[in-house]
Amino acid sequence: MSDFVYRISTEKEWKELQSNGSTFGGDLDKSSAFIHLSKLDQVRSTLENFYLNCKEELYLLQIDAKKLGDGLVYEIVAGSNSFPHFYGPSRSFIPLPLDAVTKAEKLSLSDGQFTCSLLD
Q1: Which of 38, 55, 103, 106: disulfide with 62, CB 3.0–4.6 Å?
Q2: pLDDT digits (tens, 9 = 90+) for 27-43
Q3: InterPro entries this protein is in (predicted)?
Q4: How many CB atoms lie within 10 A of CB 36?
């Protein structure tokens, strides 16, 4: 398991995380009862599949996987790919804590490609 997992976050969510110290994420996270995360090698495809038409500013958050403890679960999605999901202890759906975020970078979109130094 990698030391880090990644969260693609809207500017609104990133500001909420900074001001409140935690976030339950967006509508998809709340309806799923877990925070959707990605491994580094999954970030680009997730951005391309779900965020190309997003009108909000986006941030990529690097998260210390150890700080999420056993609430971080890797689950098979679409029959093949294992994605990290953060539920919290005993799948209780707790918010993502700010102190687990080790870096945050604004994503830029140019010619259909998202960039930031975390993706280099």
Answers
A1: 103
A2: 999 999 999 999 999 99
A3: DUF952
A4: 18
